[in-house]
Known about the structure:
A: Arc Repressor Mutant, subunit A; three-stranded antiparallel sheet; 10 helices; C: mainly alpha; rod-shaped
Amino acid sequence: MTGPPTTEDAPGLFPAPPMAEQERMVEAMLFASAEPLRAADLAARMPPGCDAAEALAHLARRYEGRGVRLVRVGEAWAFRTAPDLAHLMHREAVETRKLSRAAIETLAIVAYHQPVTRAEIEAIRGVAVSRGTIDQLLELDWIRLGRRRQTPGRPVTFVVTDRFLDHFGLASTRDLPGLRELREAGLLDPRPPGAAAEEDEPPSGQTDLFED
Amino acid sequence: MTGPPTTEDAPGLFPAPPMAEQERMVEAMLFASAEPLRAADLAARMPPGCDAAEALAHLARRYEGRGVRLVRVGEAWAFRTAPDLAHLMHREAVETRKLSRAAIETLAIVAYHQPVTRAEIEAIRGVAVSRGTIDQLLELDWIRLGRRRQTPGRPVTFVVTDRFLDHFGLASTRDLPGLRELREAGLLDPRPPGAAAEEDEPPSGQTDLFED
Amino acid sequence: MAEDGPPAAGGDRLLVDIEGFEGPLDLLLTLARSQKVDLRRISVLALAEQYLAFVAEARGLRIELAADYLVMAAWLAYLKSRLLLPPDQAGEAPPAEDMAAALALRLERLQAMRDAAAALMARDRLGRDVFARGAPEEITHAVRIDYTAGLIDLLRAYARIRTRDEFRPWAFDRRDVYTMEEALDRLRGMLGDIADWAPLEVWLPPGWSTPARRRSATAATFAAALELARQGRLAIRQAEPFGPVGLRPKGPG
């Protein structure tokens, strides 16, 4: 093998490497990175004509049942150790800061209701959300600002991040446990049900009022 | 699976896991470790009766020819990117940087006084112009060599290129504003007391010196 | 996760410990759970009575209750009266049953989020149960530098150069100036070599041929000649106005 051609300069000049080779490339790149990488990130570093998505699919199958697994994190992929081997790893564990109950509940509300405004979080919890709680979750990079809600005051919304998905081993927010059951039970509507608790103004119930 | 037994407390009570399982354990531990691990390190974290050395041998074979390989580092073992894929670990980043003051001044002088010799640039700037500055502008293809001056020594002259005009959005160097306009645009604000700056107003005024 | 809630939920009556609750909704949820039924089938009427009893007891103990607890108490008292009275014929307010159902749903939703939070925290978590590559390999970045400069930078640079010139203390550019001292030195050196009349041009320094330089050299040489003539070391003659000027050395004395 005579060193890889500088393919950037001559796209299409060389045929794409065989799939087995593409799989090796994806394997090497993902192994080298502690952070999840998107298929597009991988493809950008591979020769032209490669199919990173297909290589990822092959690779995921290869690592099924291994001590290390290929997992999807949002739009990205990463190698992670198999959870059943956690007991061997405890020496590597870095103690994460203990989260307050308010922070944990707020996180769950953002994950299950996203995009969600602060007022909606407060309506669900029945108490004000302290600045520190939101800050802590933002600092952990578990939640981030989403789009502003198109209601009067254009309040900011919060959504969970890929890092959240990565931390909790979720391929996407659709994989949140019990999501469908909660939705079917009508428990994922952040609007305050009916006229209960008239003391706090309905956070996003207003949406409907202002849409045609 | 009912959680792993706390094997440290009951050595020999359970049979050692099958070799395939031991291989998974070694794989996960080496993957997650920040440092290469010796067989003894691995064995200390595995259930009693395990053969870390044999698991390592199996694992090394499994990764033969893959994108990552199990390599020996002294007495220890670690996963490393296959050497033929090292090029994937390089990435070219484009960094935009401001031109140095010397370069931008030199460029400005070439633009206003072209064709201009190095000695003339130095006379105008009042300081020597380094070879690197000229080279940088030549490399950027913003200046190029013009005709040699028909004076003793036949010094080379510099002129700006079409790429320069393109980059700075100029149709020609005649579009460059004169000193008066620069002053009116506020670019030449501090008017020195009593100094007549108009004497070399036209951009090509200096050419006269070298005629006849 | 909800273990750090109320200290004693046993029986129908709670010890008054307002500190343990995160607001009235949290208190209501704890009371509702003490009914030991599915949250969907709780008796909101009983719940309202429990809450009002709790608040009454707190006040009996002169515990300062936050305003939101009292607002909730007022609302629940209203709900309770509505639930006990026959339906409002005028139909101005929503039916009491709907209000009760909405409250029950709110409590159920809060409980659902608490359960979800607990389930989330119990998952296999990165850095605790699942691990990333411990020794990630750095991607080396070959940095290609893209130099940028805008027209305004260029103009500023040129303006800066010209401005600097304006600020430079004014000094005559001596490169093209032949001084009288230089001319005197030159003429003195030439006195011994030239014996007879010679035109001024001959006395000029070599290399001062451009018009400006020639002009300067001619002026300086002529001025130097006048000085040497005053000292009696040189004679000057001119046949007519604007005619050629001739110089001849004179011996001392």
